[in-house]
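Q: What does the assembly look like in three dimensions?
Context provided by user:
Components: two
Sequences:
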Amino acid sequence: MTKYESFEQDVLVIGAGGAGLRAAIEASDLGMNVGLVCKSLLGKAHTVMAEGGVAAALANVETRDNWKVHFRDTMRGGKMLNNYRMAQIHAQEAPDRVRELEAWGAVFDRTKDGRILQRNFGGHLYPRLAHVGDRTGLEMIRTLQDKTVHSKNVKVHMECTIYKLLTNDGRICGAIGYWRETGRFIVFKAKAVILATGGVGKSFKITSNSWEYTGDGQAIAFEAGADLIDMEFVQFHPTGMIWPLSVKGTLVTEGVRGEGGVLRNSKNERFMFKYIPEIFKKDYADTEDEARRWLDGDKAARRPPELLTRDVVARAINSEFKAGRASTHGGAYLDIASQRDGEYIKRKLPSMYHQFKELADVDITKQAMEVGPTTHYIMGGVKVDGETAQSTLPGLFAAGEVAGGMHGSNRLGGNSLSDLLVFGRRAGMGAAQYVKDLRTTATLKEAEIDTTCKEMLAPMERASGENPYVIVQELQEIMQNHVGIIRNENELSEGLAKIQKLKPRVDNVRVEGGRAYNPGWHQALDLRAMFICSEAIAKAALLRKESRGGHSREDFPNYDKELGKINFVIKKSGPHEMQLVKQPLPEMPADLAELFKGD
Amino acid sequence: METTMSVYRGDKNSGRFVDYKVKQFEGMVVLDAIHQIQAEQSTDLACRWNCKAGKCGSCSAEINGKPRLMCMSRMDQYNDGKPIVVRPLRAFPVIRDLVTDVSWNYEINKKIKPFKPKAKEADGTWRMQQYEVDRVQEFRKCIECFLCQNVCHVLRDHDKKNEFGGPRFLVRAASLEMHPLDTEDRIDMIKDSLGSGLCNITKCCTEVCPESIKITDNGIIPLKERIVDAHFDPVVWLWRKITGKPAQPTK
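A: Here is the predicted structure of the complete assembly.
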């Protein structure tokens, strides 16, 4: 038998970004003994990189705002494919979650009358994002981190990667993984597990995501028998840095546009006026003059089209590129220097100023930035119940980016930070209730643990084999070129075939060095999850023969009425089999449906 | 263009510098070079990183002797034909290669008493003006890269980790102490547990802060003044003894 360290926990939270931390705090408050696993050090998870703000209808800046408007914006942004109940709970509870952060010490920027300031963002009808300059995520993660540290019975396990969920009798009973520092194995016996592992962006070549984003949660949930949903919907953020090469993909906050930044092409045209979709025409300005009046605070003026939803803006930049009107390095110009004075820009967007100055030699108070789409977020993920955040596998919960349904086919900026607070808390509550209702505990299967340990050691014990980094680079090329922002039948089929051809090579990777802090080995072990998610994305994208939100099909450029009524659910149907099932959208009750009359 | 990187390889027992040749491209940063080495020459070269945009504070190292974030260090600033030397932070024990054991910092953080807000206004909100929060927002920019801890001679040269919490946690304490809503008294904790008296304000920490936080001037010195007021001003001292309330009636 392979040696391993073991821990016993009521609730094991995997992932320590906003959702994981919020879930741990809640479960601890409800009397649970909690284990919190971080793939990196505590406080370094992806939430720390969120910039623009957290969306909540606090109505501090615009009194016309309320949860119904937020709910409507979210559903419209998701092109009505969202799980309406999740979107409703999210819009209703987000304000309390933001106020709670303030009670825990977060210091948001202030309005003139001393309340939490809110800024404009894409797809939000009113200024709705509570923020701290352009480092909102840092403020959130630090607040939650410090709250967690002082919560009862929360044991933090840093630099620990979970490789597999353990089940018995059709329910969750634990998880197995390894310490990055020593490479030793660790087994958690847990009554409930909450996944809060984030997204999949690392499978694409151009991404704003870090090394951690290898789709671990989606993959281990799928392997354990939980369903996935909406995996075809990947968000390509319209504004990533594109030059120099070193920073290609690095995020440029939507806050730049929220604060008045405009997009131009090589002919100096503000091209977004040409790309306003029918459904949004009544809410967006159609002249530069009106957009200017809106920026100056005229409440009768409509919003500038740069603040359309991310899917729309990303596609527009791509279309300008195809029409030969791209910026020098193949993107668009994002210009705030002509809209706001230098001091204002430095105060509201300090990290953008710093980032461009240091890494691209661009002074954003004087010059335009060059930007282009970057893989940023996956709307799909583990299918969960909106009330409890429980997956289809008893005892397994999911919150934040790893969960699917809330955002439909496209997520609005700022709705991720609020999502992870609202559903992080709900997952903590759901898991605690599940544990309290449990009558018997499932036992771990020793044989399964032993097999898993051997599987993890295999890349180190092979006499010869391939470099895992080569496999990753090939996968990233495939996903970028065949399953990227603009898709079609041929590209997707070819991409899927290439993924399937590349996959067997994962079983032949070999790494040098020992078990202690060995990134090559960690990369090798992340491959399995990357392939499961990539395959799921490509397969669902192939089946969805329409364009909707983050999923754009050249060969089916319009909405399909029938497909607008279904989600694709992915189930495990054999040891290595993926089955895609059409599932009708839950029907919205009349009072909510009323909000969309005339759409 | 080819550049030589001289990178520390080793663990807590022993180590040495190994030279690697990397292809340098426009705009490249030191972290790119480390990634290139990992992918093409030595897959087990250990380093930490996450955001690659100066926001997470994971990739701290010493580059040509200067503590810096690798992701924010452009290669072209070192183009003098000499190898670029990258080694792990000196103030913390090496785990492997560029990765150090920074867990001590997380233990110090636990000692700091949490935020304790005053009661809300009648309308259920807390009101604060932007100018009142500017001061703590500066401290809250900290990304916990621990470069300030690494360069502080109390920790680096004298290894007084049992007596001194270091600049990072004095700034953290300041962010709570100067929070307009906070009511907790941390003065004794700052003096005794964090050992603020050991800082002799050489400002080395401020110099290396990638977030340009004025750690010494805006954080540590005002805390030191509060401690002096609380412990050595007889009127305030008596007030604290009798009422048990903080030294600063208004924060």
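Follow-up: Chain B has two domains: 2-100, 103-243.
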